């Protein structure tokens, strides 16, 4: 069964609560823009493309119910209708998390759709709503298709450009954070490449970091890889250098593949905290370092990584951990409880710095894989995005 993190049908939106995974699979109704804002801000849903799509669909689901029943759409701004109501809610959702550009990109595109619908002769609230709903629904479809193409391009590139002289010509790769079905509309970006390698029988093993402090790796990537029976092994973030340093063929890492929250115009890439450290390690160990992202993550209006706003989250997310209680029986076997609790792993009064993302300089990146193909640096060592946006 395909893992479905976003359940959408016209008028209805549900998300799989990622704070409960992998221990509990709970779907939450998203009935309002406020619900979507809360889910994004609290990271019940996370991952750059998924954030954008849930925000867009939350408004679509509300106004679809409104178009059908003529009832209150349950959006913020009860004294507004049609275009104004949509603009207002899009702007509100934009404030939910700052670093990933996909949300801002979606808002810009959806505002354009609404403006064009307003300009149509005889436009009504109903016709504006319909135009919005169709555009938001199309984003869901497009993201899955784009990720499948990222998977194909990325796998092709890895098989061409990295040393595949491992048992049966297979490669092992390392990834960070969660970039799969849970972080996107489906299939995934960096994890999409891993899926593509696996489906062609070229994947020996996917290593993934636990990704402290939010543990997107251990909680979410592990869950997805197990779900799809992809051979995999978790490491803590601090084990990456040791893994790359291993000289055993069977463990040899061909490349590190990560996703992105925002790629600046020069290729500098903001992604989950810890990405930068992996890129430095890759350079030292002469291992390819690849960023996988749809074009919606490339922000040509941001000149370089220096201009990217990095979200800082609460210290508490570093000093606590979530999970079910573990009980050890007399024979030493473990049983894991059902419900998720939060436990302190440090005294919170010490405080902790908690940037959610870091920026990897483009000089450390070998290739950026998009749905349109793989971009490498030119002779002067610069990424040139022009041709990716030719259409
Ligand atoms: C396809 S997801 C790419 C990125 O969004 C992902 O690597 C990441 O950094 C997610 O961060 P998160 O804080 O979990 O939203």
TrEMBL record:
It is an enzyme of class 5 (isomerase). The record marks 177 as: Transition state stabilizer. It holds the Pfam family IF-2B. It is found in: Cytoplasm; Nucleus. Its main location: cytoplasm. The active site is at 261 (proton donor). Pathway: Amino-acid biosynthesis; L-methionine biosynthesis via salvage pathway; L-methionine from S-methyl-5-thio-alpha-D-ribose 1-phosphate: step 1/6. Keywords: Amino-acid biosynthesis, Cytoplasm, Isomerase, Methionine biosynthesis, Nucleus. InterPro entries: IF-2B-related (IPR000649), IF-M1Pi (IPR005251), IF_2B-like_C (IPR042529), Initiation_fac_2B_a/b/d (IPR011559), M1Pi_N (IPR027363), NagB/RpiA_transferase-like (IPR037171). SUPFAM superfamilies: NagB/RpiA/CoA transferase-like. It comes from the Eukaryota. It catalyses: 5-(methylsulfanyl)-alpha-D-ribose 1-phosphate = 5-(methylsulfanyl)-D-ribulose 1-phosphate. Its EC number is 5.3.1.23. Gene3D superfamilies: translation initiation factor eif-2b, domain 1, Translation initiation factor eif-2b, domain 2. Belongs to the eIF-2B alpha/beta/delta subunits family. MtnA subfamily. Catalyzes the interconversion of methylthioribose-1-phosphate (MTR-1-P) into methylthioribulose-1-phosphate (MTRu-1-P). PANTHER family: METHYLTHIORIBOSE-1-PHOSPHATE ISOMERASE. This is Methylthioribose-1-phosphate isomerase. The lineage of its organism: Eukaryota, Fungi, Dikarya, Ascomycota, Pezizomycotina. The gene is MRI1.
């Amino acid at each position: 069964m395909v893992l479905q993190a976003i359940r959408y049908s016209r008028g209805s939106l549900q998300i799989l609560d990622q704070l409960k995974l992998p221990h509990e699979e709970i779907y939450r109704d998203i009935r309002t823009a406020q619900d979507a804002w809360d889910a994004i801000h609290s990271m019940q849903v996370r991952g750059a493309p998924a954030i954008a799509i849930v925000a867009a669909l939350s408004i679509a689901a509300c106004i679809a119910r409104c178009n059908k029943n003529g009832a209150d759409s349950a959006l913020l701004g009860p004294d507004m209708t049609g275009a104004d109501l949509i603009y207002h809610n899009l702007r509100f959702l934009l404030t939910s998390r700052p670093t990933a550009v996909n949300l801002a990109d979606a808002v810009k595109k959806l505002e354009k759709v609404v403006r064009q619908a307003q300009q149509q002769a005889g436009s009504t609230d109903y016709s504006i709503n319909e135009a919005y709903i169709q555009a938001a629904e199309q984003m869901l479809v497009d993201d899955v298709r784009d990720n499948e193409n990222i998977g194909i391009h990325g796998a092709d590139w890895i098989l061409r450009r990295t040393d595949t002289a491992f048992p049966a010509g297979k490669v092992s790769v390392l990834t960070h954070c969660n970039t799969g079905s849970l972080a996107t509309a489906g299939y995934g970006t960096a994890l999409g490449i891993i899926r593509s390698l696996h489906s062609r029988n070229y994947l020996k093993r996917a290593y993934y970091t636990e990704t402290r402090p939010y543990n997107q790796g251990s909680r979410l990537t592990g869950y997805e890889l197990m779900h799809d029976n992809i051979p995999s092994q978790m490491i803590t973030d601090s084990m990456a250098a040791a893994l790359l340093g291993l000289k055993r063929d069977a463990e040899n890492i061909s490349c590190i593949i990560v996703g992105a929250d925002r790629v600046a115009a020069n290729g500098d890439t903001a992604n989950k905290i810890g990405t930068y450290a992996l890129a430095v390690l890759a350079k030292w160990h002469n291992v390819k370092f690849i960023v996988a992202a749809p074009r919606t993550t490339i922000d040509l209006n941001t000149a370089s990584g220096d201009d990217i706003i990095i979200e800082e989250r609460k210290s508490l997310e570093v000093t606590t951990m979530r999970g079910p209680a573990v009980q050890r029986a007399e024979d030493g076997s473990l049983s894991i409880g059902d419900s998720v609790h939060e436990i302190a792993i440090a005294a919170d009064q010490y405080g902790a710095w908690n940037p959610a993302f870091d920026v990897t300089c483009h000089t450390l990146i070998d290739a950026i894989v998009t749905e349109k193909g793989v971009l490498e640096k030119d002779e002067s060592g610069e990424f040139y995005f022009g041709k990716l946006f030719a259409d």
